[in-house]
Amino acid sequence: MSISSTALLIVDMQKGMQNPAVGKRNNPTAEANVGRLLGRWRDAGAPVVHIRHISRSARSAFAPGQVGVEFQEALMPLAHEHVVEKNVPDAFIHSSLEKWLRIRSITEVVIVGVSTNISVESSARSAGNLGFGTSVVSDATYTFDKIDYDGQLHAASVVHAMALANLDGEFARIISTEQLLDEMQRFT
After folding, report:
1. Domain boundaries, the chain
2. Residue 78: CA atoms inside 13 Å, Cβ hemisphere, count?
3. What are the Cα distances from residue 54, in Å, to 17, 22, 33?
4. Which of 71, 98, 122, 152 could form a disulfide with 89 if both were Cys (CB 3.0 to 4.6 A apart)?
5. What positions does the domain Isochorismatase-like occupy (predicted)?
């Protein structure tokens, strides 16, 4: 992995995701792991993309003007870091993300953020289908409890594991923060 041709995509790390009303979640250290990776990318001067969900519904916590739409303080973009706004889960749909990556000769992406089974999974599927070498960091992503069509509640850890299983090998490789940092140490 060449860090100069690998972008860190930070998906939906917004204040609204910290609201307890969103539900029970897994990976309580995900933000710290995202922060560690963000620090490593910044130290290397490598490309970072902050992706923010902007809802089309005025009642959403992610609607323009709502506190929930703001980036979490610890993961705030720097002035020179690219910000992509999206209205659907997939960061590549109706955005300039693919063009931005290709213009910069970026061939690989590392995806972190929330939620594993929605925005992370859909963005990773597109990245893989578009030919980017795609990695999803298992402990720098998280999701929430989910009720299925039969009315059965599934713990966030189970929903998270299934989303990663859906991606693994087909669209992306799944890696931990420690594994990725070790790999970067060897190749940079």
Report:
1. 3-187
2. 11
3. 13, 16, 24
4. 122
5. 6-179
- Asked if residue 117 has pLDDT above 90, the reply is yes
Backbone angles phi, psi at 80, to 5 degrees: -90, -5
Q: Burial of 62 by CB count in 10 Å (0-12 exposed, 13-18 middle, 19+ buried)?
A: buried
Contact 6, 106 (CB under 8 A): yes
Read off φ and ψ for residue 86, nearest 5 degrees.
-130, 155
Could you tell me the end-to-end alpha-carbon distance of the chain, in angstroms, rounded to an integer? 8
Q: How far is CA 182 from CA 4, 83, 90, 176, 188, in A?
A: 16, 27, 29, 10, 10
Q: What is 91-102 written as a DSSP string?
A: TTTTSSHHHHHH
Q: How does residue 184 score in pLDDT terms, banded at 50, 70 and 90?
A: confident
**Residue at 104: amino acid letter:** R
CATH architecture of structural domain 3-187? 3-Layer(aba) Sandwich (3.40)
Instruction: Write b or e for each residue in 107-119: b if 16 or more Cβ atoms lie within 10 A of its Cβ, otherwise e.
Output: ebbbbbbbbbbbb
Q: Strands (DSSP E) along 71-128, which ranges?
A: 82-86, 108-114
Check residue 51 and give its pLDDT.
98
> Is the separation of the CB atoms in 46 and 6 below 8 Å?
yes
